[in-house]
Amino acid sequence: MSSFVKLPCWEISRCNAKRFNCEAFQNPDIPCWELVKMKNDYRKFNHICTECIVYILKNCPCDLSQKEMNSILSYRGIST
User: Fold this and answer.
1) Cβ proximity of 49 and 43 under 8 Å
2) Of 48, 70, 49, whose CA–CA distance to 1 is shortest?
3) Spatial distance between the Cα atoms of 71 and 58, rounded to a whole number of angstroms
4) pTM higher than 0.70 for the full model?
5) Pick from 8, 13, 12: which is nearest to 80 by CA?
6) What is the DSSP code (8-state) at residue 49?
7) How far is CA 3 from the centre of its chain?
8) What is the mean pLDDT of residues 9-21?
């Protein structure tokens, strides 16, 4: 697994967490999906987190090759 799995969610998803005062940005040691669970956020109920590339890359054993993962991240503008 390459180093991109160590990136914080806001870097993988290419969001402007600092600008939006994101809780994940404020609490970088807690995975974003855990913050959603703690708040009972709507995303928890809609399974948005479990379908997110950040969650998948960090948690799910998958059949994607390293090349395919890098391609997804590259498409999103993230260098690996």
Assistant:
1) yes
2) 70
3) 16
4) no
5) 12
6) G
7) 13
8) 80
